[in-house]
Amino acid sequence: MILRTMLLAGLVLALPLCAADKPAKPGKWVKMFNGKNLENWKANERPESWTVQKEDGKTVIRGQGGVSHLFWMKEECENCEFKADFKIMDGSNSGMYFRTAFGPGFPKGYESQVNATHRDPIKTGSLYNFFKNLDSPTKPGEWGTQHIIADGNHIIIKVTVNGNEKVITDFVDEKNTFTKGYLAMQQHDPKSTVFYKNLMYRRLPPTVKK
Predict the structure, then answer these.
(1) Could you tell me where the beta strands, DSSP code E, fall in the chain?
(2) Closest alpha carbon to 61 in 83, 38, 81, 92
(3) Which of 102, 109, 115, 119 is most buried per CB count within 10 Å?
């Protein structure tokens, strides 16, 4: 009887641990940033380009310094939503990657551009290399929210500024170029500075093939 009780207690204690290892349930938003450190995040190179600091009274992730990409390593995106508040400074360049491979250099995957006044004409809300937006929805130093929806080969990118939401990209990738990979943020060059906060992820159910 004592042995049986001990075994049952062990199973009960193990349940939360098993649940913690499971991927997020479809439809449930998951916080990607704990507001303290870069737990679950990994830079592909130059980790010193990413820091956690206070900005406008909130704890944020800052990208500043050499070229680097910061990956959220907890779960890969297949069908998912990825959104974050961002602030890009004058002359700076960044991006939010999804379905991207971890590795050195500029990652292979989809990139939703974050750029207000950098010399690159491709501005915030663009799906880089697939759909161009040439008019930035935000000013340098202004907070906005970028919301990416990747459902099969249908990609939607929305940007919200001062409560006004606008669909920038609504694109169907007939080639299904990238189907699964990590989420990441870009620190583009030593002259760029970007801030991110309220990073959120939601897994979507598999696409129903017609």
Answers:
(1) 29-31, 41-43, 50-55, 58-64, 68-77, 80-88, 94-100, 110-114, 143-151, 154-161, 164-172, 181-187, 193-203
(2) 38
(3) 115
Domains of the chain and CATH, by start: 26-203 (2.60.120.560)
CB hemisphere CA count around 40 (13 angstroms): 16
Cβ atoms of 182 and 100 closer than 8 Å: yes
User: Global pTM?
Assistant: 0.87
pLDDT digits (tens, 9 = 90+) for 82-141: 999 999 999 999 999 999 999 999 999 999 999 999 999 999 999 999 999 999 999 999
d(CA 195, CA 151): 27
